[in-house]
């Protein structure tokens, strides 16, 4: 990496906090955890049914991050695609160019402006929020406490101490996920609005990422 890019990377604010929370599972079968309350079981069943009905989902997003203690909010926008089970693409187009993508085994983060690509196993981000939109119902029961805030609104609290976020709110409109609100472990609130939604099938090859020639590649095996 050249000196200019190294300095930019060190000084740049993280514009993709969703990497910390990218695990909402699209699911197929419910396994009720021992000691689970009837309310939790009902919420898991309802959310699991809503997500299981979606094989493909694509559209646009608008993301706003509110720092702790009233700092200046930052915004980002771009496109996304999800395919159950376990595949998603999240492409930031403004204010810069970043890509988060997984085919189900590895998760890539490609920063086009800094010419860097980082690969991690999906298991290392297993209870983070975009895999809740592309995962499995068993993990809803196993990895989250799920409650309903309304007929089509849910709150998920991760049970793992190292989940990377404190809470996730997920709202549906007309049967599709339309809004997410995430509080991360720095107490930042990340609000995401999903727009121009489509459930039409698309080519799964878009989830297969290969770093372009000339970029710096970082591989993390754990």
TrEMBL record:
PANTHER family assigned: OUTER-MEMBRANE LIPOPROTEIN CARRIER PROTEIN
Chief location: periplasm
Organism the protein comes from: Chromatocurvus halotolerans
Signal peptide: 1-33
Entry protein name: Outer-membrane lipoprotein carrier protein
The keyword Signal is assigned to this record: yes
Described function: Participates in the translocation of lipoproteins from the inner membrane to the outer membrane. Only forms a complex with a lipoprotein if the residue after the N-terminal Cys is not an aspartate (The Asp acts as a targeting signal to indicate that the lipoprotein should stay in the inner membrane).
Cellular-component GO terms for this entry: periplasmic space
Sequence similarity: Belongs to the LolA family.
Designated gene of the protein: lolA
Top-level division of the source organism's lineage: Bacteria
